[in-house]
Amino acid sequence: MTTATNTAQAARAKALEWINLGSKRLLIGGEWIGAASGKTFEVINPATEQLLCRVAEADSADVDAAVIAARRAFEAPSWAAMSPHARTRVLLKIADKIEQHIDELAAIESLDNGMPLWFAQGAVTAAVDIFRYYAGWCSKVLGTTVPSDGSTLIYTLREPLGVCGQIIPWNVPILMAAIKFANALCCGNTVILKPAELACLTSIRLAELIQETDLPPGVVNVLPGFGATAGAALAQHPGVDKIAFTGSTAIGKQIVRDATSNLKKVTLELGGKAPNVIFADADIERAVQTAVKTFCGNSGQVCSAGTRLFVQESIHDQVAERVAQVAATWKVGDPFAADTRLGPLISAKQRDRVWSYLGAGQDEGALLRAGGNAWTGPGYFVEPVVFHNVRNGMKIAQEEIFGPVLSIIPFKDEEDAVLQGNDTTYGLSAAVWTRNISRAHKVVRALKAGRLWINTFGESDPAMAFGGYKQSGWGREFGQESIEAYTQSKSIMVRL
Ligand code: NAP
Ligand code: MG
């Protein structure tokens, strides 16, 4: 066995040791407890379809208890009066804890979600960076002084919102939990996290590691459970001050309706159908390699994935051929094998949904260039699928598939690329590939999306804001803008 294989197997064994410790529970007020109903649900490994463990299933009674705990923790001096510098130290400690457990956390994520170990390691490493980035923000949540005639002093304070409900999807749970926790905590809030029931284990393990730091009990609460019960109860709860939701646009709209109960603040990170635009003057080979990476990475279960590849007419056939060649080298298989590039999809339901688009694309006249072979054996695997000569109005080009399916769409010129690129209800991310610097900047200005790239795709930095135009969301996470999303301002006048 190679060293890489040994390391992967050691990480897997460590993860299984933790998983096999027994049923996982809810974290409420610093205690790990069973659900009030006594119910549990199964956690399945999507690569083998086998049971990993059972997890306590939170519902509205547990949400009530967590809200009380989170409110108490929010008001307790141990958290409310903690100096920003002490908060920085806590977040740095959490970052250190994650860093010390990268391989174990990554292996838990791979077992639970199915993503390849190398992808999971990248996600856990990003989680470390996120905590370190927000650790620095604790002491920089600044108010302002307002100019006056000297007879008054007017200033503002930026204060935390209170109890934040956070609902995350299953696609990259460790990253989602990290951004939600770090962002909220650095501003002085307390949190109740509801991970997706399909992949909740790293949220639980992360919370255990956080419990080993000096964070007061009740500041972080974790309620694994289903969306329709635990998630909805959190969104509707009058004792919750904010909901930060990441997930589908359809459920995002439901969250907004539920949040009207007490007009809690809402931020939404929703779906996407990103245009990735290649002009004929681009570095074609780099553009192709990256195009494949973005639609195949995490088996396409990424909200910002570049799923609509717009290619200038003169190079369409050449690019389609090369994309199909490169996609064929993206090996599907065991998430712990060193040469695996794509693991399974999260569930049988998701696999069947993705598979249905193969038929839909062909029915509408798109040409299948790669993929389409059914997987035999256990696991919810799907090989990369490439359609070319797609029209932007087709279902496969309009709907978020959330699987490794690419639509290659020809375009004429700059104007056409922008027109077609923006012809979508989504607006999360976009990219342009060209050696013409003026064109690059003109096109990114014209594309309606929250995060854009020039001559790259998918790279991230905790300081770079992320969020949607149009139906891809409300508000921003990451970077300075997210500090505003977890605080509110108070203005004060003093008559001198
Ligand atoms: P989803 O069905 O919307 O679920 C997301 C989360 O919401 C899960 O925890 C789910 O719980 C919960 N939920 C479901 N119904 C709910 C309800 N009525 N009230 C409250 N919570 C509810 O999305 P998904 O299928 O898990 O994830 C894929 C979607 O997430 C894609 O559309 C993708 O684009 C989007 N996404 C967006 C971003 C971003 O940052 N913009 C990042 C990643 C993913 P259960 O699943 O446990 O029932
Ligand atoms: Mg799972």
TrEMBL record:
Instruction: Output the Gene Ontology terms for molecular function.
Output: oxidoreductase activity, acting on the aldehyde or oxo group of donors, NAD or NADP as acceptor
Entries under SUPFAM superfamilies matching the protein: ALDH-like
- Where the record annotates domain Aldehyde dehydrogenase, the positions are 32-492
- Please list the coiled coil stretches: none
Tell me which InterPro entries the record gives. Ald_DH/histidinol_DH, Ald_DH_C, Ald_DH_CS_GLU, Ald_DH_N, Aldehyde_DH_dom
Q: Answer whether the UniProt record assigns the keyword Thylakoid to this protein.
A: no
Q: Does the keyword Transferase apply?
A: no
Q: Which UniProt keywords apply?
A: Oxidoreductase
Which residues are named in the active-site annotation?
A: 269
Q: Which PANTHER family match?
A: ALDEHYDE DEHYDROGENASE-RELATED
Spell out the family assignment given in the record's similarity comment. Answer: Belongs to the aldehyde dehydrogenase family.
Q: What is this protein called?
A: Aldehyde dehydrogenase (Acceptor)
Source species: Caballeronia pedi
Kindly list the organism's lineage.
Answer: Bacteria, Pseudomonadati, Pseudomonadota, Betaproteobacteria, Burkholderiales
